[in-house]
Amino acid sequence: MLDEKSITDRFWQYYGKCLTERKKEYLSKCNLNCQYNTRHRVKKQGSIGFCQNPDIISKSRNPVFVCDDSDTAQNCKYFSCKNTEASVEEGFKEIIHNPSTCGHEYPKLAILIWVLQGDAMENKGIINAIRSLFQRILNG
Ligand code: SF4
């Protein structure tokens, strides 16, 4: 059975892992992270990304330039990431502080926070069951 210190250690371990993965995703060179990319709904095709960079648009034969995959962004010299390390960290903290979004995006972290905050301390059986469950999830 995990004690409180072990759960706290696991929390910070997992917190660091999630933040690292989030930074990797949001700081990567992909169309969704480019500050020039805007998404619009196109009939029968769903949401599509379009480039709004003036240098690209002016050189394009078409009035619109579709940028809807990471390959296009990977090969684009005008790519400019709209996110920074600080903005990703800030966004992550906001998610963690909101139980609903945290539960949706990082359910394991939400469980750990819930256990550490002692919201269920009145019921030791539930706490112990969650600790066991979490131990299995982390080890699994
Ligand atoms: S084409 Fe380049 S500048 Fe334009 S949205 Fe895509 S990555 Fe950004």
Largest sheet: 2 strands, antiparallel
Q: Give the CA-CA distance, first to last residue.
A: 15 Å
- The Rg value, from CA coordinates, equals 21 Å
Shape label: elongated
Task: Give the number of domains.
Answer: 2
Number of strands: 2
Structural notes for this entry:
- With 140 residues, the chain is mostly helical.
- The chain is built from seven helices and two strands; from the N terminus they run H-E-E-H-H-H-H-H-H.
- It has helices spanning 4-26, 54-59, 70-74, 85-97, 99-105, 107-117, 124-139; strands at residues 37-42, 46-51.
- The structure holds iron/sulfur cluster.
- Residues 31, 34, 36-37, 51, 53, 56, 67, 72-73, 76, 78-79 line the site of iron/sulfur cluster (SF4).
